[in-house]
Amino acid sequence: MRIPPARLDRHDPQGPWQTWVAGLPRLARDVMAQWELVEDGEQRHGHVANVVMVRTADGDPAVLKLGLPHAEATHEHLALQHWHGRGAVRLVRADPGRGALLLERLQTRDLSEAWDVEACEIVGGLYGRLHVPAPPQLSDLTTSVAGWTDDLASLPRDAPVPRRFVEQAVSLGRSFLADEASTGTMIHGDLHYENVLAADRAAWLAIDPKPVSGDPHYEIAPLLWNRWDELAGDVRGGVRRRFHAVLDAAGLEEERARDWVVVRMLHLVMWELDGRSPDNDRITRHLTIAKAVQD
Question: Which residue range(s) make up the domain with 61?
Answer without folding.
Answer: 16-104
